[in-house]
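thread: overnight batch results

M.L. [08:02]
morning all. the overnight job finished for the chain we discussed friday. pasting input first so we're all looking at the same thing
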Amino acid sequence: MEYLWSDKKRTIFGLPISFTKYALNEERLFIETGFLNKTEDEVRLYRIMDVSLKRSFWQRIFRVGTIHCCSADKSLGDFDIVSVKNPKDVKEQLSQLIEAQRMAKKVTNREFMDDDMDDMSDLH
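M.L. [08:03]
and the structure it wrote out:
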């Protein structure tokens, strides 16, 4: 399988000394954790509703960051892509792929519709 992006969680001094791996293709994000006991999770990109970037002082010094993803995936829920290189670029690439998948699958957010329904019920 060909990946558009992959990286490892970076720990001390921004070095990839970790057993957490991330990979991204056009449709899915893969998260592999563990050394002896491995866990492999994946989330379909159209299920990710929102992404944000967090960078602590130390992360900024070592040029890494954590991308927080709000997801509608039942097994994974909300999750973080922790301490990866070039986090702004990764977040932008992820956002574009998410939008493309949501358009291709004709998936819409119902959060605004739910708010509108609540407002309409207040009128009665």
